[in-house]
Amino acid sequence: MSTLFGRRLLLRPLVANDFPAWREVRRRNVDWLTRWEAARVPGAPDVVEDRSSFEARCSARQRERMLGTGYGFGLFVGGDFAGELNLNAIQRGPFQNAYIGYWIDEKQAGNGYMAEAVVLACRFAFEEIHLHRVQIAIIPRNTNSRRVMEKLQFREEGVALRYLEINGVWEDHVRYAVTAEEWDDRAEDLLRTWID
Predict the structure, then answer these.
(1) Over the stretch 40-49, which tens digit does the pLDDT of each residue have?
(2) How far is the CA of 64 from the CAs of 2, 44, 78, 92, 116, in angstroms?
(3) What average pLDDT does the chain have?
(4) Which end of the chain is more exposed for a tag (fewer CB within 10 A), N or C?
(5) Pick from 91, 119, 97: nearest CA to 9
(6) pLDDT band at 1 (very low <50, low <70, confident <90, very high)
(7) What pLDDT band is residue 147 in, cutting at 50, 70 and 90?
């Protein structure tokens, strides 16, 4: 199990025993989060309310880790669950790419935790699993999430029109990326600022 240690937080895979804390945070943050997320498929179990669905989700993430196709992490601050960060859709071959997605408990937002978590994930992506590129796509009006990219000074690549279906609407997304070469140039500063 991959656990990543930051200065003020840790990232580790979620397990079945995390369900009560995860459910409490998701319930409390329903309005804060659902406007930025894909709508639940009609008829699908509600992973927030159904423990067995949450356990199946944890098992699916474990299988992704074993296959090297994805790495899901819970974000913990002071031992308390506070959000998630995922390296999704890892592609090998000539692309060597992953997508980062993340969310945080509203009461923990604005403290720089997500910037720290993204730096941890990038170090893992480039130095441990040897990807070449990491991408992050954000709805333009999501100023909180875009502020994370501004803090880290990740390269903006433009707007992808109607990129993802979010809460039932095909939304444009601003795309950000960092490559292994950029990481090599900036890792020392990023790690000193956010991790060491």
Answers:
(1) 788 888 888 8
(2) 13, 21, 27, 14, 24
(3) 94
(4) N
(5) 119
(6) low
(7) very high
pLDDT at residue 185, rounded to an integer: 97
Whole-number Å distance between alpha carbons of 40 and 20 = 20
CATH superfamily ID and name for 4-194 = Gcn5-related N-acetyltransferase (GNAT) (3.40.630.30)
Q: How far is CA 40 from the centre of its chain?
A: 18
- Residues facing residue 85 across a β-bridge: 73, 102
DSSP notation for the chain: ---EE-SSEEEE---GGGHHHHHHHHHHTHHHHHTTSPPPPTTS--TTT-HHHHHHHHHHHHHHHHHTS-EEEEEEETTEEEEEEEEEEEE-TTT-EEEEEEEE-GGGTTSSHHHHHHHHHHHIIIIIS--SEEEEEE-TT-HHHHHHHHHHTPEEEEEEEEEEEETTEEEEEEEEEEEHHHHHHHHHHHHHHHT-
Kindly state the tokens that stand for 86.
């995922």
Which pLDDT score is estimated for 2?
82
Name the residue with tokens 């927030």: 48
Give the rounded percent of residues in the chain with a pLDDT score beyond 70. 99
State the Cα–Cα distance between residues 81 and 74, nearest whole angstrom.
7
What tokens does 185 get? Answer: 């140039």
